[in-house]
Specification:
Strand order of the largest sheet: 1-2-4-3-5-6-7-8
Radius of gyration: 19 Å
Order of helices and strands: EEEHEHEHEHHHHHHEHEHH
Low-confidence stretches: 293-307
Distance between the termini: 5 Å
Number of helices: 12
Number of strands: 8
Mean pLDDT: 94
Helix content: 40-55%
Largest sheet: 8 strands, mixed
Length: 307
């Protein structure tokens, strides 16, 4: 079958240019892919074509990430509330009235803010190493971050956070926990680091490390959304992730007993190594829970026959 083409576009959202990757029929069910730290929509570069024959797939870069605008900190407050506000306005700009969410890492606090604000717009959720429970922040990785939350001007705390922005730290995120590290391309970490190293970006990342402390107090509200609305959820989690360990995956089942949980033998950036396993799971889940129109299905059938 013909591989769907991926378009690379930019849309104006307020005073910002928001870059996004887009593929698939625009009349198909929409899937919004929300990236984590320290990456961008490039983390979905291989997943997008694997879904775009049946779904309208959209993956934006947040302000300060990827190829979106990176306004100075005195012109834009880099907080999770503001990231969610921009992505909310982005969905309006693209006229995405209903969509499934794929959330990973930072994508979870961004996406769950959208879900709470617009529960009627969310058709399904795919969670990949994205936290919404206190159990997911109880490991060693979070200790220096929590110290930074308490005293962000302390020089030792700032030094510890700046250490998370080095190339070695970025490669560590990609490689650690992978079952077969040789399958993890070095291109992802290299691109991420190139963009992290832009002048002024380190302070932006420190602002967002600090703003992450705004997320745990919202966990009860997100969990109430899960219980009240019971969105279809697929949890595909790299169980060897030292940042968001499997302890943060299983609590979702308390509030969403019908959710599907798969703990995979990989790390934080599971798509880098387990795409061949994850893409069929995600496709099957979305096909069960989203309405794929007859028009889209007939187009897919026609493409298959031509191939």
């Amino acid at each position: 079958m013909e591989t769907p083409q991926v378009a690379h576009r930019t849309v104006r959202v307020g005073e910002l240019d928001i870059f996004y990757r887009e593929a698939g029929p625009k009349d198909a069910p929409a899937v919004l892919l929300l990236h984590g730290f320290p990456t961008s929509s490039q983390m979905f570069r291989n997943l997008i074509p694997a879904l775009a024959d049946r779904f309208h797939v959209v993956a934006p870069d947040y302000p300060g990430y990827g190829h979106s605008s990176m306004p100075p900190r005195d012109e834009f407050a880099y907080t999770f509330d503001n990231l969610a506000k921009v992505i909310d306005e982005f969905t309006d700009a693209l006229r995405l009235e209903k969509f499934a969410l794929y959330v990973q890492d930072y994508g979870a606090p961004v996406g769950y803010r959208l879900a709470v604000a617009h529960p009627d717009r969310i058709t399904a959720i795919v969670v990949q190493n994205g936290n919404a429970y206190e159990e997911g922040l109880a490991n060693e990785f979070w200790k220096p971050i929590k110290e930074y939350w308490k005293a962000p001007t302390n020089s030792d705390n700032r030094k510890a956070m700046l250490g998370m922005l080095t190339y070695e730290a970025t490669k560590w995120q990609y490689q650690t926990g992978a079952e077969h590290p040789e399958l993890v391309s070095p291109d992802g970490s290299a691109e991420d680091q190139f963009l992290l190293d832009r002048p002024g970006n380190a302070e932006i990342q420190l602002d967002l490390f600090l703003s992450y402390r705004s997320n745990p107090p919202l966990y009860p509200k997100w969990q109430e959304y899960f219980r009240s609305h019971q969105p279809p959820m697929l949890i595909v989690w790299g169980k060897n992730d030292p940042i968001f360990p499997a302890a943060g995956a299983t609590p979702y089942l308390r509030d969403l007993p019908k959710a599907e949980l798969h703990l995979l033998e990989t790390g934080h950036f599971a798509l880098e190594e387990k795409l061949d396993m994850m893409a069929p799971m995600i496709r099957a889940f979305l096909e069960r829970h989203l309405e794929v129109t007859e028009t889209v299905m007939s187009r897919v059938t026609q493409m298959t026959r031509l191939d």
